[in-house]
Amino acid sequence: MSATDVGLPETALIVEEETRRRKPAKERMFRTGGSGDITKPTVGGLIGRYVLLVVVLVLVIGPFLWQLSTSFKGPGESLYTFPPNLIPAQPTVDNYRKVTDFIPVYQYAWRSLFVALVSVATNVVFALMGGYALACMKFPGKRIALGILFSTMLLPGEVTVTSNLLTVNGLGLANTLWGVILPGAIGAMNVLLIATACRMIPAEVLDAATVDGATTWQRIRHIVWPNVRGMTSVVAIFTFIGAWDDYLWPLMVITDPNNYTLTVGMAYLNSNFSPDPRLIAAGTIIALIPIIVLFSVTQRFFFSGVQEGAVKG
Questions:
Q1: Cis peptide bond prior to 83, omega within 30° of 0
Q2: What is the pLDDT of residue 178?
Q3: pLDDT above 60 for 135
Q4: What's the half-sphere exposure (Cβ side, CA atoms, 13 Å) at 1?
Q5: Among 112, 144, 212, 282, which is most exposed with the fewest C-beta within 10 angstroms?
Q6: Residue, of 56 and 44, whose pLDDT is higher
Q7: Could you give the 3-state DSSP secondary structure of residue 207?
Q8: Which residues form a coiled coil (predicted)?
Q9: CA atoms of 71 and 288, how far apart (whole Å)
């Protein structure tokens, strides 16, 4: 829905004018590296660049490929060979079937999915409101609020575990999924990311919307949200991955195995009851599948959000 649909004609004209004026500058900056001069890389530079990319790719993808290969190897195959053998001689999917014999992996996965989706929803909504307030509104104590946000980012997560645990116990949320969700319902980094994206919106656009009679919620819905959707995708992806992979906090909050999330439940695969590395690898791959699917589907929005926060025309 455009600004004209909510009775803001002047705002719509300003938005269109700003879009036409700013877009070519961004495109020129990406084509010329930001300096205005098109430079042609040398042969040595290209070789060094690709060698570095290959080294980074091996370091990042190598462990994943080893785990994937191990999950399909049968009990008669050696796992620790040099050089590593990434192609199973007798590939099998029995390891994935055996995982369910040790833990109810799909029930754990549904609980982790619930925690991750609720965390994404709360972080996107609260970060959008907080980021808009910090970037586009004037109020007493604004700098103090920014200082508090920055200071919380300097603290390691382990420092706040005790206070968070006491808070969750005091609210009666211990041993529940809501107790897992509450401390991560809003992140300081997410608020600052959205605030950075909101600062790219011309003040004239918001001022024109205010003159046209738009309320705060109308400005957020029709002006701010369309301009920060890319950054909110970044916030959503990072929040989902963080909530899905979190292990320490669910381990401390949840004591009932019937409420375990996937990461806590997967710890049993590395216990004395199941020391087989093949099952551990199969369980790891199961836990990685949602992350891979999520990033494959949303990578276009992710990179547009990174561009949105890194470039200011």
A1: yes
A2: 93
A3: yes
A4: 11
A5: 144
A6: 56
A7: helix
A8: none
A9: 13
Type of residue numbered 240: F
Q: Are 302 and 225 in contact (CB under 8 A)?
A: no
Q: Is residue 165 classed exposed, middle or buried when 0-12, 13-18 and 19+ CB atoms within 10 A define those classes? A: middle
Residue 176 vs residue 43, higher pLDDT: 176
The pLDDT score that the predictor gives to residue 34 is 47
In angstroms, how far is CA 120 from the centroid of its own chain? 9
Q: Which domains does the chain have, with CATH numbers?
A: 41-92 (no CATH), 103-310 (1.10.3720.10)
Residue with tokens 């320490």: 248
Structure tokens at 166: 């006491």
pLDDT, residue 84, reads 73
Compute the distance between CA of residue 226 and CA of residue 128 in angstroms, rounded to an integer: 12
Instruction: Let me know: does 222 contact 6? Beta carbons within 8 Å.
Output: yes
